[in-house]
Design a protein that fits this description.
Layout lengths: L25 H5 L5 H16 L3 H8 L6 E5 L5 H10 L4 E6 L2 H10 L4 E4 L14 E5 L8 H11 L5 E7 L6 H14 L1 H8 L7 H9 L2 E9 L2 E4 L2 H10 L9 H14 L10 E4 L2 E8 L2
Parallel strand pairs: 1-2, 1-4, 2-3, 4-5
Antiparallel strand pairs: 5-9, 6-9, 7-8
Helix pairs in contact: 2-5, 2-10, 3-4, 7-8, 7-11, 10-11
Bound molecules: S-adenosylmethionine.
S-adenosylmethionine binds next to helix 4.
Length: 291
């Protein structure tokens, strides 16, 4: 959308933040890095809205079972790792690794029985062939070096065992976020909108298939239906802004403007009781570590 089509938000006072461009940290958005307080919002509101349905699907596709040593890469607050604990039993072990200490602090409070490690997927601090299953849910698109990340996941997986990765389908397949990104672009410009678009950059099966095939055998990509659910439009906006990479970018006044516009612009995604639901499909891709 061109600048001239954007809604002009009338300035009130010079210091209220309305007439300023939001201060987007692009590197942080592209790397999926949230502030420490945003990690709490992520766990409390984002996980039930978007992420919580997926761990059993990934664990099933990967065949996680009793006695396995499992690695969850880009674990965030640990939804996959926590679900894996019940499957591997007392003889297994679950390790969660993430770049972000705020996410890991929330994860460790929720599940002290998982081994939580801070680190980058591009340089995993683990022995070669040391895990029975390696999983990564909705993190691959944020890796600084995706190819190196996949190579490392393949390296630490025992030869012949599955490495399973979830990525969101395209923005066009996810109408609620396509509309949210268009609204942010109209109000605040493309830098702000790009923070909402970043999770969808690996939505084409061919792109993710090729990426994994560089380091894994027998790669298969499956498109799986999913649904995003928020209690209301206000909750949706609050979760997306305060629980993700834009948490410090918008002033309170800009946030209020966004809320007002969203109630009208995104109303078609809410039912008669105000609850929000829209399709949020994902690609679940599995390949086997090379022998
Ligand atoms: C959208 S969150 C997904 C978290 C979790 N897997 C879930 O499904 O709720 C993406 C996570 O990937 C992590 N991440 C991004 N780049 C990373 C990297 N290079 N190495 C390790 N973790 C990374 C981020 O810190 C963030 O916690």
């Amino acid at each position: 959308m061109s600048t001239s089509e954007r809604t002009t938000i009338p300035p009130t006072t010079a210091s209220d933040g309305v007439d300023q461009q939001p201060a987007v940290d692009r590197a942080r958005s592209d790397a999926g890095q949230v502030a420490a307080d945003a990690a709490e919002v992520y766990e409390r509101f984002f996980v039930p809205a978007l992420f919580g349905d997926w761990p059993p699907i990934l664990l099933d596709r990967a065949g996680v079972a009793d006695g396995h040593r499992v690695l969850d890469v880009g674990c965030g607050t640990g939804v996959v790792a926590r679900a894996a604990v019940g499957r591997v039993g007392d003889d297994g072990e679950v390790v969660g690794l993430d770049l972000n200490p705020g996410m890991l602090a929330v994860a460790a409070r929720a599940a002290p029985d998982v081994t939580w490690r801070q680190g980058a997927v591009e340089e995993l601090p683990f022995e070669t062939d040391s895990f029975d299953r390696v999983l990564s849910q909705f993190a691959l698109m944020f890796f600084a070096d995706r190819d190196a990340g996949v190579a490392e996941m393949a390296r630490v997986a025992r030869p012949g065992t599955p490495v399973t990765v979830a990525t969101w389908a395209t923005l066009a397949d996810t109408p609620g976020y396509a509309a949210m990104a268009a609204l942010l672009d109209r109000l605040f410009g493309p830098e702000v909108a790009s923070a909402i678009e970043a999770p969808y950059v690996l939505g084409e099966p061919q792109a993710v298939g090729e990426l994994l095939s560089g380091h894994l055998d027998d790669v298969a990509v499956e498109v799986v239906d999913g649904t995003a659910r928020f209690p209301s439009i206000d909750d949706w906006v609050r979760t997306d802004i305060r629980g993700w990479t834009l948490s410090d970018a918008l002033t309170d006044t800009q946030f209020d403007v966004l809320l007002t516009e969203a109630r009208r612009d995104l109303a078609r995604f809410a039912d008669g009781d105000g609850r929000v639901r829209f399709p949020a499909p994902a690609l679940v891709t599995t390949g086997l570590a090379r022998r």
